Amino acid sequence: MNEKIKIRVEEQEDYEIVENLTRDSFWNVYRPGCTEHFVLNRFRDNPDFIPELSLVLEINGEILGHIMFSWSKIQCDDGNVIRTLTFGPVSIHPNYQRQGLGKKLVDFSTEKAKSFCNTCILICGNPEFYGKCGFSDALSFGIRYGDEIGETPFFLCKELKTGSLSGISGKYVEPSGYFVAENYPKEFEEYEQKFPYKEKLVL
Hints:
Helix content: 10-25%
Strand content: 25-35%
């Protein structure tokens, strides 16, 4: 790929482009249609949202990728609370997927995240892909996915500072705001009307 790639902080004038990109990236992937673009739209007003870590990937000036970070936490078994990071949705335009751009965006952003947090990043994702970005099973760090008992191979962790989770035992508490479409179906339906029609399919 010989195109000029640039990763930068998202700006307000990018919002509509990024939400369209997110919608295109997730449409019919996990469910008929998608809700990730609405999550992004609402999350920008969430106190856990980190604007400096909302990043776009451009190729020759065109936005073709995006990642969003927010604050999360570990509720430790000893009563302490540890502040952590999470990210998502991560979007790459469908025509540019499986070309290494997702990894490039994740690697760049997780490195930048070190200046915001010195503990870890916790996510739910594909272990095969995110393993290539330095993520591993969160349970091996003593962190459970909420109240889940047993192995959760999709729940992953990356330390931002080696040893920062030493001796930790607790459960992950994700930020509120990821289920806005389910909690506000009427608002989501109204929001969705502004986008071009796309057929919802079970794939």
